[in-house]
Design a protein that fits this description.
CATH superfamily of the largest domain: Alkaline Phosphatase, subunit A
Radius of gyration: 24 Å
Largest sheet: 8 strands, mixed
Number of domains: 2
Number of strands: 18
């Protein structure tokens, strides 16, 4: 049956509004990620974490705009395993790490195995532009370099700034020797260029600064400007405060670039430290005891700030047990990446999706209940379970004037400095935590990827 022309036109007019209303809305752009890591920054080294003299207005404001985590643990207590954990979401021992860093206790010919799945490889598979600007420290040789571990764009030093004098881009040396005091500025300029070039598509930018790792040397524009470091006690002035305050300013330049490109509202910004402070430096971990390399709280309880305007409510403080290994699954969730489908044939991920905790979801059962903690030279030392922390060997806890035998159990909510051993008062808790640690370690030892050689 054929319709006459007037009837056909009438039907088209009637149908038009319905057709238009059913048109799909444009897909929302996935958020960008800017993951910023300081090097050897102590828990107490920012204004928003309580430092009385170091001025960090940019990071203080970032904390006010999002969430400040107060019970956050780095992936390990030293550089290489900490970065392994952050980039893979796995305990470093799953990736063949046993002690040390590349170039010190780890053969410089070894590195993160190409079999490991990095967060950069995951985001790259989802059409993100990926960039690594800063310190790598996961292997010097060609198979281990960042552009072969998922990063499209790289500008980096391969180890710590006390171990290397070379800046690389891919396999090419672009500067040798570099001037240590200018590294934060150079990394920031490269990061701003990356943001400008990739503003039209989602990007994942990993920005591990070398500051304030030793040698601590202030940029000429910051030299002598910080109140923390003045020689008011007759001693030689130090540069630590100036280096941290410059770092804060550089992060402000990166945030300003995001705003200038009109992508700040759709960018997740994370700031953390790779581990606690180096012994003998001016960094602080108050109220915690211990430094880098140590499994005491000062060794790897570090500052962490996360901001995502409009999604993470402003002005939060979160005391839930959270770890750097949790960032990979949480960021994948935030970016609607189906992580299980990507990792089904990959190494085990120990990190948990804590995104709902970060966003302040109500009536939430926080997923992380326990965490294994590693010494930088001696492997596994202690386990967290809720507010409890157990050292399997009391000697490792280094309690002044206390017996060095047996175990050492602390309730951190009441004993942040880990000075009061409660093992004899709570033997059931000790047994419970020992059993859990043994089970967790057995699982890890059954699923290990050796270091790449």
């Amino acid at each position: 049956m054929k319709f006459h022309q007037p009837i056909t036109l009438l039907l088209a007019v009637i149908a038009a509004p319905s057709f238009l209303s059913a048109a799909p809305e444009p897909a929302k752009k996935q958020p960008n990620i800017v993951l910023i890591m300081a090097d050897d920054l102590g828990y107490n080294d920012l204004g928003c974490y309580g430092h009385p003299q170091i001025k960090t207005p940019v990071l203080d404001q970032l904390a006010k705009s999002g969430v400040r985590l107060t019970n956050f643990y780095s992936g390990s207590t030293v550089c290489t395993p900490s970065r392994m954990a952050l980039l893979t979401g796995a305990y470093p021992t799953r990736l063949g790490w046993t002690e040390g860093v590349v170039g010190y206790l780890i053969d410089p010919k070894k590195g993160l195995s190409p079999k490991a799945l990095t967060i950069a490889e995951i985001f790259k598979s989802q059409d993100y532009a990926t960039g690594l600007i800063g310190k790598w420290h996961l292997g010097d040789r060609e198979p281990f370099r960042p552009h072969r571990q998922g990063f499209d764009y790289t500008y980096y030093i391969n180890k710590s700034n006390n171990q290397s004098k070379t800046i690389w881009r891919g396999d090419e040396v672009v500067e040798k020797p570099f001037e240590n005091r200018l590294l934060s500025e150079k990394f920031t300029n490269e990061a701003i260029g990356f943001i400008q070039r990739n503003k039209a598509k989602p990007f994942f930018l990993y920005l591990p600064f070398t500051a304030p790792h030793f040698p601590v040397q202030a940029h000429p524009d910051w030299k002598g400007k910080s109140a923390f470091g003045a020689a008011d006690d007759g001693k030689k002035p130090h540069d630590y405060g100036a280096v941290v305050e410059e770092l804060d300013h550089r992060i402000g330049q990166i945030l300003a670039s995001l705003k200038e490109q009109k992508i700040d509202q759709n960018t997740i910004v994370i700031f953390l430290s790779d581990n606690g402070p180096q012994g003998g430096q001016k960094a602080q971990s108050t109220p915690y005891r211990g430094t880098k390399w140590s499994a005491l709280e000062g060794g790897n309880r570090v500052p962490c700030i996360i901001s995502w305007p409009g999604t993470i409510p402003a002005g939060q403080e979160n005391d839930a047990l959270t770890a750097a290994i949790d960032l990979l699954p949480s960021l994948c969730h935030a970016c609607d990446i189906d992580l299980p489908s990507i990792t089904k044939d990959s190494p085990v991920i120990d990190g948990l999706n804590v995104f709902d905790s970060i966003t302040g979801a109500k009536d939430l059962n926080h997923p992380r209940k326990d965490l294994l903690i590693w010494h930088g030279k001696e492997g596994f030392h202690s386990i967290r379970m809720g507010n409890w922390k157990l050292f399997l060997n009391a000697a490792d806890a280094k309690i002044p004037g206390a017996p060095q035998s047996g175990t050492a159990l602390f309730k951190l909510s009441k004993d942040a400095a880990e000075l009061h051993n409660l093992s004899s008062q709570f033997p059931e808790k000790v047994q419970e935590m020992q059993t859990l640690a043994k089970r967790r370690l057995a699982d890890i030892h059954q699923n290990i990827i050796p270091l790449g050689e």
